[in-house]
Amino acid sequence: MTSIDLDKDGPAPRRAPTAEEFAAVHESPQFQELRSRLRRFVFPMTALFLFWYLSYVLLGAYAHDFMATEVFGNINAGLLLGLGQFLSTFVITAVYVRFANRELDPRAAAIRDELEEGRA
């Protein structure tokens, strides 16, 4: 089975890789490096976020006085930390997108191109 990618130079035929080719790529050093880079980013970032989230929940459950501390006006520490949860989610997403665009996507594209061209 073949598929066709259309680009500005016209159709570029690409063939569907076999299961054996996928298995070979899975064992390749390039794919292992791609997985390693992903894991080195995702696991620490996940642990950091879960620690931050769990800290917020525990503070909310057990540190009522701290969370009720007024920072300015009717704004208290709990509200600011809660908004910080949203902000940190957006920051982590932006950092991951930048990391993926710079580190992961080019490597994945090279592996995919190699596989679809039959050089795997």
UniProtKB/TrEMBL annotation:
Keyword Membrane (UniProt): yes
Keywords, sorted A to Z: Membrane, Transmembrane, Transmembrane helix
Entry keyword annotation includes Ligase: no
Membrane-crossing segments per the record: 41-63, 75-97
Pfam family, one: DUF485
InterPro entries: DUF485
Name of this protein: DUF485 domain-containing protein
